[in-house]
Amino acid sequence: MAQSRPGPSGRSTIFMQVHPYQGGDLILASPSVDADGWLSAVHSQAEDASSPPLSWSGPLGAASYALVVEDPDAPREEPALHWLLWNIPGSTTALPGDIEAGFHPAATPGMIQGRNSRGEHAWLGMAPPPGETHRYHFQLFGLDRRLHLPVDTPLAEVLHVLKAATLFKGELIGRFRGPVDVGDAASPARTGSYGVDPAVDHVTRAEEAAGRGPLDSGDIDRHAPHDPEGVVRPRGGEPPDPKRPFRL
């Protein structure tokens, strides 16, 4: 009997379980998250899987910071843990990109890099199933102390300390959509959007298996006829609106 694929965890992230006792919000930012909230593919397993750079501002006075990055849309019982850092110095207001693996990365002296869901002391690159959009919650906690924890401390135990030591917190959410492997489709599958929200307009598994993607409002897709210059034409054969050129 075939087993059904588990759905998103539906569990709350660490951010929702920690209540600061001092108050105030940390403001997180990253050049890897664009104005529409999409996280750069360079941090995914399909590309470099490098950790994204981060910076923050807000209340002062933290003795140290802890960072937790989770994907609550992962098909598992609990959110997938992509990154776990603690003992980021209180004087620090940014992390560089592409931090090396290991529990004591040289990029930020004194910082500890805990284990991700794969058991590695590193950033775990995004890898949602093809065509699925997942959210990645970057959760930063300003703490009243440094944490004296072994480098292999699991997230549940780190959370226990965060609940008692958090002065203030902040969150940045980036989205990433799993690229569609066009080699598995009967004909080229569409991985982009024709001017609509890519979180809604996506190629479903059934559509991909059938070798076509969803249509836009002009009934234009990648499997319609096109001229030698690559301009996609509607199924009726009429050229598209010149104000909305679509090219392969």
UniProtKB/TrEMBL annotation:
<protein>
    <submittedName>
        <fullName>YbhB/YbcL family Raf kinase inhibitor-like protein</fullName>
    </submittedName>
</protein>
<feature type="compositionally biased region" description="Basic and acidic residues">
    <location>
        <begin position="219"/>
        <end position="248"/>
    </location>
</feature>
<dbReference type="InterPro" id="IPR005247">
    <property type="entry name" value="YbhB_YbcL/LppC-like"/>
</dbReference>
<dbReference type="InterPro" id="IPR008914">
    <property type="entry name" value="PEBP"/>
</dbReference>
<dbReference type="InterPro" id="IPR036610">
    <property type="entry name" value="PEBP-like_sf"/>
</dbReference>
<feature type="region of interest" description="Disordered">
    <location>
        <begin position="204"/>
        <end position="248"/>
    </location>
</feature>
<dbReference type="Pfam" id="PF01161">
    <property type="entry name" value="PBP"/>
</dbReference>
